[in-house]
Design brief:
The complex is a heterotrimer of chains A (314), B (484) and C (219).
Chain A lengths: L1 H32 L9 H10 L11 H20 L15 H21 L3 H32 L4 H9 L7 H17 L18 H4 L5 H26 L12 H26 L8 H22 L2
Helix pairs in contact in A: 1-3, 1-9, 1-10, 2-9, 3-4, 3-9, 4-5, 5-6, 5-7, 5-11, 7-9, 7-11
Chain B lengths: L2 H19 L5 H26 L2 E3 L4 E3 L1 H30 L5 H23 L3 H19 L5 H36 L8 H6 L6 H19 L7 H8 L2 H30 L3 H21 L5 H22 L1 H33 L10 H4 L1 H14 L6 H16 L4 H24 L14 H15 L3 H13 L3
Antiparallel strand pairs in B: 1-2
Chain C lengths: L1 H24 L3 H26 L2 H29 L11 H25 L7 H18 L3 H23 L4 H29 L14
Helix pairs in contact in C: 1-2, 1-5, 2-3, 2-6, 3-7, 4-5, 5-6, 6-7
The chains are: A mainly alpha (314), B mainly alpha (484), C mainly alpha (219).
Chain lengths: 314, 484, 219
């Protein structure tokens, strides 16, 4: 029980502290790949530090809800990071939420953020909220299908059980998981406002989605939301790694692997961050009207994965 | 050596020879000679089968029984008479500047190759080769239909290729499934696709797979039979190709495709122990009869009119074989024969009439009986024969089909009667003015070959009045092969 | 060993299915040809693997035939055709790709439903892939229906043939050699004829849009 508590605590802290680092790492790689001089790895921390020390400016008509939203979003993301078995599958919090609840958590954060963006009644906030909801309503079913695909293979919707099973089985090629993996990448790009769908580095009025939502926030509110965005990326990366590359995750039977799990996770995150930057550098941003096609492909891949799973039993 | 090789050898050799000489003036005669050779060889083959019963040739790869030898003879015969008709027809086409030497070469060569593929499809014992031959027949006819290179003929050929290509792909899937079902019992290898082999083990074939296999085979080959709703290619291909091609398409190719379905039906019936195959055939057959009859009303082009009539008759034959039983099978075979003969005869007269009028639109064709009485009478008699007027063979077979339907499938009788009535009214109302109306067209530079028309009509009449005993035993044997 | 082989066949089958979907939603003619080439390569590879897994040497031959015909010869022909017709950079306006993809999913479910009982009775190691093969055939069929340009239609036709070939390999370890050769010959002649047709159509209509081919219909 103690090791369980320990690993749970370690995971949450790790997520909170490492998430901005991952964002910085991706940004650095992106700059390198585009032949620019890269910002420091610690730039996101500096930004957060700066923002936390600024006074938040609130719009005149902002409701209390507007002030609550950053905390809610941040809380949801932190909880999401807590239930994804990135280091260990021995997590006391995991019975609290399974794979479906994870999707629910992301949805919750999205809804609050969108409502808050519309709350102050600016044009950009509303526009961003509408676009974000469009992306969300297409991405969530695809994400659910990806998770169902994994659930079908392990006969459980509990994330820890799924990862536990995946980590301790013989090597086998699962076409369904391969398809689900590709679908997951597509969904992650859309959900984290990455390049083919949205550009995290732009404030171009007509194309931005996620940045438009945060436009009116400032000070610690903005810091929390930026941090939450980092956490979301971190959560997606960890979920993907746990589902598709689960080797090296510790469990209740062998808690000592926990020591090993940390460097393994760091390594995997470093590689996937670099790959994400590569993916972003080689693809062009698509028009917003193409996004439904993009996400329909993700949905299609995930559903095909499920169907193939049923047909082939593999 | 078996005459079978000659039956295949003549057209194959002919297509090669005509690929070189097809544009020469003597090519038209050469075409006739090769077709005659095929017919003589087919006759010899028939004699052999009558004398010795079913034969296997070349390590069982070819199989001749009363069912297919009858079709082989019919194919060779109509192939020959069409080549006779084709000779003056092509002379006129050259004179009118529609055929260039290159096109003529292609036409003659493909005509022989088309005969070859049909005969191969009929005689092969291997269901895989049957598919290959059917696809090859599609390819050759695509070239024949598009031979004028006009916008309309290209469109017809493209539609034909795409639709039949898609259809026949389904048949390949069905063949694969069939091979799978057989492979479970006898192991893989060429044996597992031999029809005679499958026929002996048909009772033990897996019914699940066979049901699906037959469904795919039926859709695939059914597209080539022109069954509704997969018939779209048929009127276009008939209307836009040269008329001899329309004659062999209607008279022969549709029969061969139906033959492929019949062979598959025998296997499916043996394996399935239910009426799936029969019901499919009756359903689609009836649908084709009704749809074609309704479409007949709307036709303006004379070749399209008779193309829809072909759809109607193929539907009727499919329905008859779907009912099954000795009488219906007998009637179906008889109807196949007379339809082949009479429909090709009609196309011969139509070909001449359209050349004369310079249009295929029926309102432009008038007064055939005053311009050329033989053509006029030929078309009139042909139309009456195909509509099922009593002394002709179509009456006999339709009578048998209808009475069997009344007894066994009473629900279908009103549809059949109604459709046949509509078809009668539609076709007769259009043929009558073409034959008797007023006209002022000039005669053509070359006289038409009208002997084939009257030979075909005479045979159609004969089969309606009196079926020679050896022919009726032959039909009965073939009908028995199709099971119940 | 053999389980890895079986699994890789399954993986290749899944890739084939995905390629069929990709072709369904691909707008560019050039990319379609690339996808078709890729499909041919996947097909050749899977045939060879089935050959290894089942010790059927004749499958190596059909794999080689596939490689020659569908990865080298036909794509080469297609490239020449689009060059000569000057449609290399053609982009087709496809409406509503998401709906098409969803309809595709329904087709896949239908074909899996059809193939499932057969797969359970079959003894071959590749039994599961029959449903995938059928789905690829139907998807290519749908692609042919939804296209209005001639070259994509031809590619759909060829893709359908690929699906059929995969079905033959998956369900029965390949058809008898003589049949397979016959099919290959038919396909080759067919594509040649279609290629010639494309030029004639171009000549007649001055366009590769088969919407021009709508003169012949019942009025």
């Amino acid at each position: 029980m103690n090791t369980g508590l320990l690993s749970q605590l370690l995971e949450v802290l790790l997520a909170l502290w490492l998430a901005p680092l991952l964002t910085g790492w991706v940004n650095q790689w992106r700059a390198w790949l585009q032949n620019k001089s890269a910002p420091s790895l610690l730039q996101p921390y500096r930004k957060l530090h700066k923002l936390f020390h600024k006074e938040p400016v609130l719009a005149e008509h902002a409701s209390p809800f507007y002030r609550m939203a950053p905390y809610l979003v941040f809380g949801a993301m932190a909880l999401a990071c807590a239930i994804i078995p990135s280091l260990s599958t021995d997590l006391p919090l995991s019975p609290a939420a399974d794979a479906i609840a994870l999707v629910g958590l992301f949805a919750l954060a999205r809804v609050f953020l969108s409502l808050a963006a519309m709350d102050v009644g600016t044009a950009f906030g509303t526009l961003g909220a509408r676009r974000d909801m469009l992306i969300g309503f297409l991405a969530e079913p695809a994400l659910l299908m990806v998770l169902f695909c994994a659930s079908l293979l392990s006969q459980s919707t509990s994330l820890t059980t799924i990862v536990d099973q995946f980590a301790h089985r013989q090597f086998a090629i699962h076409p369904s998981l391969a398809l689900a993996g590709v679908a997951f990448i597509l969904v992650s790009l859309a959900e984290n406002a990455r390049i083919p769908v949205d550009n995290p580095a732009t404030h171009l009025e007509l194309t931005m989605v996620h940045e438009a939502l945060l436009l009116e926030y400032s000070g610690r509110h903005l810091a929390l939301l930026e941090w939450a965005a980092s956490l979301k990326l971190f959560a997606y990366a960890c979920a993907g790694l746990a589902l598709f590359f689960p080797w090296g995750v510790a469990d209740a039977r062998s808690p000592e692997v926990l020591l090993l799990a940390l460097p393994v996770l760091m390594g995997k995150l470093a590689v996937s961050g670099a790959l994400l930057a590569l993916l972003e550098s080689v693809s062009a941003k698509m028009r917003i009207f193409r996004v439904p096609e993009f996400l329909a492909s993700a949905f299609l891949l995930a559903v095909m994965g499920m169907l193939i799973n049923i047909l082939l039993g593999a | 050596m078996s005459p079978l090789f000659l039956v295949l050898g003549f057209p194959l050799l002919g297509s090669m020879a005509l690929a070189f000489f097809g544009h020469r003036p003597f090519a038209r005669t050469l075409n006739m000679i090769f077709s005659l050779g095929t017919l003589v060889a087919a006759g010899a083959l028939t004699m052999e089968v009558i004398a010795r019963g079913p034969v296997w040739v070349w390590d069982q790869e070819f199989f001749i029984d009363p069912l297919n030898v009858f079709m082989v003879t019919l194919t060779a015969f109509v192939g020959w008479t069409t080549s006779i008709f084709s000779s003056p027809y092509m002379r006129v086409e050259i004179a009118q500047g529609k055929m260039t030497p290159a096109r003529l070469r292609l036409y003659h060569s493909m005509y022989q190759l088309f005969s070859f593929t049909m005969l191969l499809a009929l005689m092969t014992n291997n269901l895989g080769i049957l598919w290959v031959a059917m696809e090859a027949a599609t390819l050759t006819t695509v070239l024949l239909v598009s031979v004028y290179r006009s916008a309309a003929s290209l469109e017809a050929a493209w539609k034909y290729f795409i639709l039949c290509g898609v259809g026949i792909a389904q048949a390949l899937f069905g063949t694969v499934l069939l091979y799978m079902a057989a492979g479970k019992l006898v192991g893989s290898g060429s044996d597992a696709l031999l029809w005679t082999h499958l026929e002996t083990i048909k009772g033990t074939l897996d019914p699940h797979i066979m049901g699906l296999a037959f469904a795919f085979l039926f859709i695939g080959y059914g597209t080539k039979v022109g069954l509704a709703p997969l018939h779209n290619w048929l009127p276009d291909a008939h209307a836009e190709g040269p008329t001899p091609v329309s004659a062999v398409l209607s008279g022969l190719l549709l029969n061969v495709a139906l033959y492929a379905i019949l062979r598959c039906k025998v296997l499916a019936d043996g394996a399935l122990h239910n009426h799936l195959a029969s019901q499919l055939m009756m359903g689609f057959g009836l649908l084709s009869v009704v749809m074609a009859a309704l479409f007949l009303w709307r036709q303006k082009d004379v070749k399209r009119l008779f193309a829809y009539s072909s759809i109607e008759h193929m539907g009727l034959i499919t329905f008859a074989f779907g009912m099954g039983g000795p009488v219906a099978n007998f009637a179906g075979l008889l109807h196949m024969t007379v339809h082949s003969l009479i429909k090709s005869a009609i196309f011969f007269t139509v070909g001449h009439a359209t050349q004369k009028a310079g249009t295929q639109l029926m309102e432009g064709i008038r007064g055939l009986i005053t311009v050329n009485p033989t053509v006029g009478w030929g078309m009139l008699l042909g139309a009456l024969a195909i509509l099922g007027l009593p002394p002709f063979g179509v009456f006999a077979s339709e009578f048998l089909i209808l009475t069997t339907a009344m007894r066994e499938q009473a629900w279908a009788t009103p549809f059949l009667l109604l459709a046949l009535g509509i078809a009668f009214a539609a076709v007769f109302a259009r043929v009558q003015p073409m034959v008797f109306g007023e006209t002022s067209v000039k005669t053509l530079p070359h006289p038409p070959a009208l002997v084939p028309v009257f030979v075909h009509l005479g045979l159609g009449l004969l089969l309606g009045l009196y079926i020679p005993p050896y022919l009726s035993t032959w039909y009965a044997q073939a009908a028995r092969l199709l099971g119940n | 060993m053999s389980t890895v082989l079986t699994q890789s066949i399954n993986l290749l089958a899944a890739i084939l299915l995905m390629l069929a979907f990709a072709m369904l939603s691909q707008r560019r003619v050039l990319s379609l040809i690339h996808l078709f080439t890729l499909q041919g390569a996947t097909l050749a590879l899977s045939t060879a693997i089935v050959g290894v897994a089942t010790h059927q040497p004749h499958l190596y031959f059909s794999a080689a035939l596939t490689l020659l015909l569908k990865v080298i010869l036909i794509p080469l022909l297609l490239h020449r055709v689009i060059d000569r017709l000057n449609v290399r950079w053609d982009v087709e306006t496809l409406i509503n790709i998401p709906t098409t993809l969803l309809a595709g999913i329904v087709l896949v479910i239908f074909s899996f439903y059809l193939a499932q009982p057969i797969a359970q009775m079959s003894l071959t190691i590749t039994r599961g892939t029959l449903g995938i093969a059928l789905a690829s055939v139907l998807l290519s069929f749908m692609m042919m229906i939804t296209r209005s340009k001639a070259v994509p239609q031809v590619i759909g036709f060829l893709a359908m043939e690929n699906g059929l070939f995969f079905a033959a390999t998956a369900a029965t370890y390949g058809m008898p050699m003589v049949v397979e050769l016959g099919i290959a010959l038919d396909v080759l002649v067919g594509i040649l004829i279609l290629g010639v047709f494309l030029f004639h159509i171009r000549e007649q209509f001055d366009s590769m849009d088969i919407r021009h081919l709508e003169k012949l219909k019942e009025d």
